[in-house]
């Protein structure tokens, strides 16, 4: 199954007089690892929020295939196959690892409020199926033996992994990751990179915000660079690295 | 429509609205500093009224003292409320903090009933004299006292925040807690001050209100709701908004009671509150108010 | 850490409570205790509904006494003015309360935290005002008398003992339903949005719809409780359905433990015992009268500060919810 293409066209978002995003257009390459980079405050997370329906853009469009999705409520966009993890959007710390992944499986279920209340056979069957799926997911990432532990009690690296597993559990077509490597050790970051490559093998489209440049340069196929809410470069990691405007933007930040 | 009657309702509404504005100002003080809506704000008003009655009738204090002493006492109670019930819950969820203030309000109300009983207590008006005639409407002297004292309290608060050290520290703390800490302001103390001031302004409202409506243990809940309504109408946290919101609410309530049904008088206020919350939770006047505060 | 299947513990608890109910019904004949048990059952039912809303979905309601009153008045009005069968009246009350909750909840539940608290408080007070003012139907402050009892197979449930056999099975069913819900896909979605609404939406949960559904269910619990109350006491007036009872419900939920299915029921029992204890003591020491309200407030504050998870600790609870915590 080929995933529909995710595109932003002339996307803009203002907060009062502040232009967080201005006329940004690019296409996310299907089945590839796409990276969105830029100095702090460049508008990366704002763009994620516009794409996933947390906020509506003030101008421009977000398209999934032929369909316009900007302005749709978050859960509708999620149902179209976009899953995301977020910087501060932590997993549910008061729920167990298994329950977190089960919430991630929410979109795979069809049970109704009433059916769940009455514990109808259909709900029961579905619950059993979802639990099996969730446990399988946890086994794949090596967290099965922690299934019954509260997420809040796990070390940060494993919390991140739970969050990622949670996002993957909905079987998305496009995965948006907001700084997945923040706070991870070098070894954990390397593992994350390998996992992303495995996911690409499975034809998953990935859009990644990341500050860890070695991770970005190692795994991504396509890089988009934002600065002050505008797209300043786009291309292969190698090409972007050499782009004088990108260098200027980053040097400007460090100076 | 009888214009004298209309004027009478307007006067009643404005006087009542001034009280709501004072209650709203109390909400704003605590909200700006801590982000908490203090459900016990109405109890501060209730205590102010009942303590004033006790001071005036039992202790035979001169009226000025009978009003001002409760203000000081309730300031202390507000500070104590913060120190013993809010401060320990520094990291709690907002819903928890709201419930704590509800708990305090319930306990204080129950305590007041134990101490003062269930009967409303009268307080003599601040000055004698005939009701004034004004275009066919009757204005009682006490109404003028209410308006004057409410205006005075508003000016005093503005002065406090702009000119005094504590006031400016509180304002700084409300704007940016961390930065305030860096320059040596203790947020805990500032929050305590906010509760104390909210207690003081509430007690003042209770004292000036008592001669008009009697003081009673059970006036807190509805005053709190209406004060909150006024605060929301004006945009919560904005003091000029509180005045406009309070007056607007007082007018709507008095017109509604006069022309539609007095039995549903309270329901009007709550219906307005719900309407505002549904349509424009940031306040009807926030655009207007923003401009003058920024 | 034990890996007991989740349903096992639940079944054990329900069977144990069921056995206790049967034993009480068969062996306790003292009307004082029967009345106490019925009261706990009715109030516990309402508290369970509120607990579902507050503990699991994280939404506060300060107007639940109003919905409790809607059920009571629906039953009283439909049976006395329209001679409707009491069972039908109970169902009609539940349905109309659910519909009113839908109308009220759609805009209200968009609000958060203190706004939702004040909004629901306002709704509750408006409902009570209508009970007082709409005298043609509600009888005004003096209320409605001679509400007929519920009848099962020709047997009128007009004694404490008979009513006990109705109320507690209803409570057991409510517990069963709640257990079902909490451990289901829907229940997880509710807990997820209770802890973090944004993350729940991102996971595909239709947050407004889920909140509305649980709010309606919660008010239906309250309405059924109210109908039972009306048929049990055969009399309704506005005073039990005001702000004071909304607060009592809140105290029940917090004392028992908002995040445990059984907690609010335990809370209802504790409060009923406290009420009876203080009432008994007040006969000897009149000064104690009125202390009850003070106690409710104090208990609420003390529990929130020192034991936020309530008496019944949920499985390895992490204390109250974490959203909004400053790190």
Structural account:
The complex is a heterotrimer of chains A (255), B (294) and C (327). Chain A has 255 residues and is an alpha/beta fold. Chain A is 40% helix and 24% strand. Chain A is globular. Chain A starts with 5 loop residues before the first strand and ends with a helix. Chain B contains twelve helices and two strands. Chain B is globular, with a radius of gyration of 19 Å. Chain B is an all-alpha fold. Chain B starts with a helix and ends with a helix. A two-stranded antiparallel sheet of chain C has the order 1-2. The longest helix of chain C is centred in the C-terminal third of the chain and has 27 residues, at 207-233. Residues 315-327 of chain C have low confidence and may be disordered. The chains are: A alpha/beta (255), B mainly alpha (294), C mainly alpha (327). At the B-C interface, helix 4, helix 9 and helix 11 of B face helix 5, helix 11 and helix 13 of C.
Please mark out the parts of chain B with pLDDT under 50 across 5 or more consecutive residues, or reply none: 287-294
Order of helices and strands of chain C: HHHHHHEEHHHHHHH
Please report the total strand number of chain C as a whole number. Answer: 2
Q: Give the % helix of chain C.
A: over 70%
Q: Poorly predicted ranges of chain C (pLDDT <50, ≥5 residues)?
A: 315-327
- Rg of chain C (CA only): 19 Å
What is the oligomeric state here?
Answer: heterotrimer
Helix content of chain B: over 70%
Biggest sheet: strand arrangement of chain B: 1-2
Order of helices and strands of chain B: HHHHEEHHHHHHHH
Spatial gap, N to C terminus of chain B: 42 Å
Beta-strand portion of chain C reads under 5%
Main structural class of chain B: mainly alpha
Could you describe the largest sheet of chain B, including whether it forms a barrel?
2 strands, antiparallel
Shape of chain B, please? globular
The number of helical elements of chain B comes to: 12
Spatial extent as radius of gyration of chain B: 19 Å
Strand content of chain B: under 5%
Summarize it.
The complex is a heterotrimer of chains A (255), B (294) and C (327). By secondary structure, chain B is mainly α.
What order do the helices and strands come in, and which of them pair?
The complex is a heterotrimer of chains A (255), B (294) and C (327).
Chain A: E1 6-15, E2 18-28, E3 33-37, H1 44-52, E4 59-64, E5 67-68, H2 74-79, E6 82-85, H3 97-104, H4 113-118, H5 121-140, H6 156-169, E7 174-178, H7 186-201, E8 205-209, H8 213-219, E9 222-227, E10 230-235, H9 237-242, H10 244-254
Parallel strand pairs in A: 3-8, 3-9, 6-7, 7-8
Antiparallel strand pairs in A: 1-2, 1-4, 4-5, 9-10
Helix pairs in contact in A: 3-6
Chain B: H1 3-34, H2 41-58, H3 63-86, H4 94-116, E1 132-134, E2 137-139, H5 141-163, H6 165-175, H7 177-182, H8 187-213, H9 220-233, H10 239-259, H11 265-279, H12 286-293
Antiparallel strand pairs in B: 1-2
Chain C: H1 6-27, H2 31-56, H3 64-81, H4 86-108, H5 113-133, H6 135-138, E1 151-152, E2 155-156, H7 160-182, H8 185-195, H9 197-202, H10 207-233, H11 243-256, H12 263-284, H13 291-306
